[in-house]
Amino acid sequence: MKVKDEKASVWTLPNRLSIIRILFIPIIIILISTEYEELLFASCLLFIIAGITDGLDGYIARKMRMTTKLGLYLDPIADKLLVSSVLITLSYYRMIPLWVTILLVAREFLINGLRSFYAMEGITIYPSFAGKFKTTLQIIGIACMLFNSPLKKLDTLIHQTGLIVLYIALFFSIYSAIHYMSAIFKSVDVEKQR
Asked: Domain map of the chain by residue range?
């Protein structure tokens, strides 16, 4: 993946989308914390829009050759902040089991911490398909948990579906963490042999 020259503007459309995603976080959290049904639905819509920008910024960056060094860091940070903060908030309001949130958020901190550390050493670990799929599942699962309908049976069905999707996301989270750890340690071994 080629990264634009440092002299190029960092305010590309993909970077702006990542920043918008970050700016949505406090609004989503406030809407959830009101516990009003109408505002919970509004938080669901905002979260879905933020989730769409997650896929859109990467697609635009690749297709329009707008990849920047800032974007390589900003995009995953925006994703992790969005998902982690909403998971923590939903656990606080007992909508998602705390243990699920702890495992998902801990994995994010572990993997991103290792990626950042090794990036300073010149070793780049790119996202895997399992990691991207995990993020997609998390976004779908969280959106289902935020969904609110006046029809109680529909609400329950969508919330149960969301929880199942989050459990599947947890599986892919652990699987992709193992994949990243092995890729990191293989890269370190190769660097040591040089």
From this structure: 13-184
